[in-house]
Amino acid sequence: MNLIIKLHEYIARLKELRRTGWVQRGVSDPETVASHSYAVALLAMMIADLRGLNTLDAVRMALIHDLAESVIGDLTPEMKMRLGDLEERERRFFEDLVKLMPRELAETYLDSWRRFSRGEDEVSRLVREVDKLERGLQAVRYLRKGYGEVKEIYDSTLNELKDPELRRVLERALKEI
Predict the structure, then answer these.
(1) Cβ neighbours of residue 174 under 8 Å, at least 6 residues apart?
(2) Alpha carbons 50 and 99: distance in angstroms, whole number
(3) Domain of 11: which CATH number?
């Protein structure tokens, strides 16, 4: 199957796939995985630019970081722990996808996914942190709308964030409710 057609099929699934954590907490019309990934990409782009990092690399990682969820589904941390072999499943997904690409491009995308999943360099660590930040900021938006059940997601996100500047952003967002 043509790469563009196959990729669009995955994208279309992400545009329809609601984020499980929000659904479980009773949020009506919660964000999709695609909207989350888009927000992560925009935030990563701006923060990478502000920090003088490789912006294209950050945006690429942010846009593909949840692509495997189009096949695996959006899993909560509890579901991921029960599954056990999530990284292996994601690796197989990306290896299958890149088979449709020219070799050099395939290596670039597979490398981006590997680096993101391992958090092995400054750019991948930033994107991983921005992924968390976006989740926390979305929790703040839902808290504003009266979904108190999402406070636990905000709290766990704040505990997971290691970047002091991004932690301050998330704390400030909650204070501005």
Answers:
(1) 140, 143, 154
(2) 35
(3) 1.10.3210.10
Using alpha carbons only, give the angle 57, 50, 131 rounded to the nearest 5 degrees. 55
Each residue of 8-18: pLDDT tens digit?
A: 999 999 999 99
Q: What is the DSSP letter of 146?
A: T
Q: Which domain holds residue 10?
A: 3-175
CA 4/CA 157 separation, integer angstroms: 34
The helix or strand, by DSSP H or E, that contains position 149, with its residue range, turns out to be none
Total of domains in the chain: 1
The residue to which tokens 């999709």 are assigned: 32
Nearest to 89 by CA among 103, 105, 107, 71: 71
> What is the Cα–Cα distance from 119 to 129, expressed in whole angstroms?
10
* Residue 1 confidence (pLDDT): 61
Interval 117-172: pLDDT, tens? 999 999 999 999 999 999 999 999 999 999 999 999 999 999 999 999 999 999 99
d(CA 132, CA 59): 15
